[in-house]
Amino acid sequence: METPKNPLSINYRIREGLSRVGMAMRIDEWNKAKATGLNPTQLAILTLLEGRDEDGLGVKEIAAHLGVSQPTATDSINALERKQLIEKRQGPNDKRAVRVALTDEGLSVLKEAGDENGLAEQAVGSLDADTQETLLVSLVTMIRQLQEAGAIPVQRICVSCQYFAPNVHPDPARPHHCKFVDEAFGQRELRIDCRDHLEADPAFRAATWNAFQPG
After folding, report:
1. Is 2 left (phi over 0), alpha (psi -120 to 50) or beta?
2. Residue 215 predicted with pLDDT over 80
3. What angle, rounded to 10 degrees, do the helices at 40-50 and 10-36 form?
4. What are the residues facing 184 on neighbouring strands?
5. Higher pLDDT, 36 or 117
6. Burial class for 129, CB neighbours closer than 10 Å (0-12, 13-18, 19+)
7. Rounded to two decimals, what is the model's pTM?
8. The CA-based dihedral angle spanning residues 25, 21, 123, 6, taken in that order and rounded to the nearest 10 degrees
9. How far is CA 14 from CA 8, 23, 131, 138, in A?
């Protein structure tokens, strides 16, 4: 079949491009998981829990963040519990609620998996600094749109955080301010998953986004 003379929409082609990058990321995940004797979903659960406080997360929250069904999340959680890599605890406010938290053994497995650059990170590393910054801001924009549409949970990105004050400094290289650490920072330092994130309410997020608006 010949390639059409008129290409499909740019939205479609960007999605195609992201799917190719996603393929490389899945290869990275399988390779890392295989080295630890886990599958990618199990490793993703450990990674998700590693960045949370000691109260852990509920099964429903884990499923939502990984984009899998609750039965799939439950199967993986049970397998990790048998391996003693996670433990189930009572919720701090509701004793009937089950929370899932990382154990010391689970943290050791994550350290064993390491953080070596995979195929996808090597591809990002091939971009120059300005292109990397533009790509990061574009990803933040896309993630925000998905979370505000309810397609994914609210992420721990700067633009959804109560501590984020965008474009309050005159220095174009460091225009934003983080109230948590009381420091100015630039676009390159925008976080996708910040452990100190404090989720802002929808009205605050909307106002923050209007003040941030790239470009």
Report:
1. beta
2. no
3. 90
4. 177
5. 36
6. exposed
7. 0.85
8. 170
9. 10, 14, 16, 12
- How far are the Cα atoms of 39, 63, 209 from residue 75, in angstroms, in the given order? 12, 11, 38
Task: Please give the average per-residue pLDDT across 40-56, as a whole number.
Answer: 89
Task: Indicate where the chain has its CATH 1.10.10.10 domain(s).
Answer: 10-113
**Structure tokens given for 4:** 């059409």
Cα 168 to Cα 160: distance, rounded to the nearest angstrom: 17
| Nearest to 97, CA basis, from 88, 106, 84, 87 | 88
pLDDT band at 8 (very low <50, low <70, confident <90, very high): confident
Three-class DSSP category at 177: strand
Q: Identify the CATH number of the domain defined by range 10-113.
A: 1.10.10.10
Mean pLDDT of 8-32: 93
Q: For the chain, what is the total number of helices (H) and then of strands (E)?
A: 8, 6
Please count the residues of the chain: 215
